[in-house]
Amino acid sequence: MENYRAEIIVGCVAIYFLLCIVVGLWAMRKTRTARDFFMAGRDLGIFVTSIAIFSSAMSGFGFVGGPGLVYRMGISSLWIVISTTIGYAICFFLLGKKLREWAVKRDSISLPDVIKVRYQSSTAGVLAAVAILLGVMGYLATQIAAMATVLQSLVSGLTTYGEVSLFACALFSTVLLVFYCVTGGIIASVYTDLIQGVIMMVAAVLVFLTAIWTVDGGLAGISQVLVRDDPQSMSPWGSKGMIGCLSWYFVFAFGVAGQPHVITKLMMTRRAEDARWTLPATIAGYMVTALLWIVVGLTMRALVVSHAHPELATADSAAPDFLQYFTHPILAGIVFAGLFAAIMSTADAFLNIGAAAIVHDIPVAIRGKPLENELRWARVVTVLIGGAAMVFALFSGDMVALLGAFGWGTFAAALVPTVAIGLNWKRATSLAACVAIASSLIVNFSIKAFGIVVPLNIDSGAVALLVSLTLFIGISLGTRNNPEVADPEVADPEVAEV
Amino acid sequence: MFDVTRWLLALCLMIGGLLIYAATGFEHAHVSSAVHPVFVSTMEVGGARGEGDIIHWNEGLVFGTVVIVTLTATLLIGVDSSSSGIKRIRCWILAVGLVYVLTFVAMMFSWREYASQATHELWGPFPAPVTWMVFGIWLVPGLFTLIYVAGFHTWFVVGKVQEDACSDSSESTIERTN
Question: Residue A237: how many CA atoms within 13 Å on its side-chain side?
């Protein structure tokens, strides 16, 4: 079987791709309106919603970048993983009911829509749409680049096909992604998320078991090897340091409630009560998939420091090398399918909210009404965004990494104050919302674009979030509310002032 | 009146102040991560930053505690004020917040002891401070989830709001436009 390793892996991935196409075709029949396309007809159940939420959050970064960070820095990046229990709790406490309620009462189909109505401010809506669009392009381009790179490495293992260019792989990846997003919109996206989430969980558990059997003594054996090599890397702070790790914890715990690809799913549920069980199901799913992030990085670091495996070419090779050298070919195939699942589940969500920003949010903010035949335009724009992201991924060099890194922190800083806090606090004002969103863009982009090194490895997103939260609350307390905003039908009053 | 957002503002200012103090006051603030002595190109070790962190243990304890208090305070914003059991839910959230802070404090003490030892015993599959981190700080906030599930109809989706939220609008403006 080892002789056909590459073929088996590619076969597993091909089956998964076929499943995505089938789901896209099935979802096309259910997508009749723009609300179906962007909001899945607000008909998602608990299981589908929870899997869609955690699989969107656990992107290719979680399956490749995460183990790479653990390999490179030791325990440091576990602060990102462990922030999820409090992060999702904040997300559901603040938005589990509110977003569903706004989606229903105001027929909102996107976050900028909600922001525009909540603050009675087109400027706030446009700023939110721009912040989302910038983050989306960066995230989407990095996901397509990652998918193309992994696909190229897999296909190059098949001697039959010889060398396949990165462009061809990027084109194939984009066409596949765009196909099921155009045909089935968010319905295809969430139901492929369902398949993707299940594959990710199965892959994570199997890899976890394989990893602890690879090193004598299991997890304890791995820890002993790493402690002997460098005790600090197996301390809670790893090589990033105490303040840097805590800044990660701060921005990732708060940031979940500002990730548009995560929280828009809360607008799509069938019933408000579903939020009750969606929260524990989401956390459980994320924790299972996070096993891969934790254990593969530690295992590869232990194998390398004990000279059982040569040093990796790059830290990000931790997961691919582990799959290549230490797993059964079928398991490797399932995990590679899981890796594509992780990438695609995030990418399809971004494709959808990017299309919503262009087709719905910006026209509504400028013209005061949606475009004619929004559904057709949504499909056209989805294709255009996919194509633009592919070109961006292939030809814009450092700009992709810049916008990719820019994504999480910007979303957190722009949307946590304005959406998570603002929907629960009647004193929040439109001026405060506009300043908070603008500050998130300025702070994040300045730090990245000018290469500002924040001391102690403090995360730039944490700085931006802190600035925007402080400005948002401070300005809201110091300015007067638009009387329309205080309308109890628009915003639920007296929630923060309990 | 108990205005959570004013507390949140104070906590944000405190976090900002602590970050500025750390960035300007820690002697190892501008030390970059140390490379591994053998695997130079792909691995890092604690190095000078790790040694410096233990000197600033007190500041780390305060910073981490303020972050956790901020996260806990944020949860209070999401509790429905029309609920009659508002005081009870606030007490439950604060009680779990206290356990959460104590878990972090326990991890910090465990780390200080770990850093002072020449040999390191494992506590379960990891060194003791990492065990506190993984099985404590990761899992304790799960108690907030229990509060959410147990009190869902009492504190989060109550009365008329629940009915309104459940009845989806059949008159969709978006459908009308298509």
Answer: 34
Q: Answer yes or no: is A478 within a domain.
A: no
CA A454, chain centre distance (Å): 24
**A454-463, B28-37, B118-127: which range is least confident on average?**
B28-37
* Containing structural domain, residue A203: 2-404
Do A461 and A447 form a contact (C-beta atoms < 8 A)? no
- Residue A471 included in any domain: no
User: Residue B150's closest chain A neighbor by CA?
Assistant: A276
CB spacing of A243 vs B43 below 8 angstroms: no
Helix, strand and coil in chain A, % to nearest 5: 80, 0, 20
Provide the number of structural domains found in chain A.
1
Spell out which residues of chain B touch residue A289, defining contact as CB-CB under 8 Å: none
Which of A237, A300, A307, A471 to mutate: most B Cβ within 10 Å? A237
Q: What is the CATH number of the domain that holds A44?
A: 1.20.1730.10
Alpha carbon A357 to its chain's center: 17
pLDDT in tens, A375-415: 888 889 989 999 998 888 887 666 655 566 667 888 999 99
Q: Is B14 in CB contact (< 8 Å) with chain A?
A: no
Q: What is the mean pLDDT of chain A?
A: 85
Tell whether A250 lies on the interface with B, counting CB pairs under 8 A. Answer: yes
Interface of A with B in 251-270 (CB under 8 A): 253-254
Task: Tell me how close the Cα of A439 comes to any Cα of chain B, in angstroms.
Answer: 15
A355-359, A419-423, B74-78: lowest mean pLDDT where? A355-359
Query: Which residue matches tokens 């439109």?
Result: A430
| pLDDT of amino acid A143 | 83
Which residues of chain A lie closer than 8 angstroms to B7, CB-CB? Answer: none
Question: Which ipTM score applies to this complex?
Answer: 0.90
Question: Which pLDDT score, from 0 to 100, does residue A494 have?
Answer: 40
B69 to chain A, closest Cα gap in Å: 11
Residue bearing tokens 């091909």: A14
CA gap B57, A46 in Å, rounded: 43
CB B43 within 8 A of CB B87: no
From chain A residues 315-334, the ones with a CB under 8 A of any chain B CB are 315
DSSP-derived 3-state class of residue A151: helix
Check CB contact under 8 Å for B78 and A424.
Answer: yes
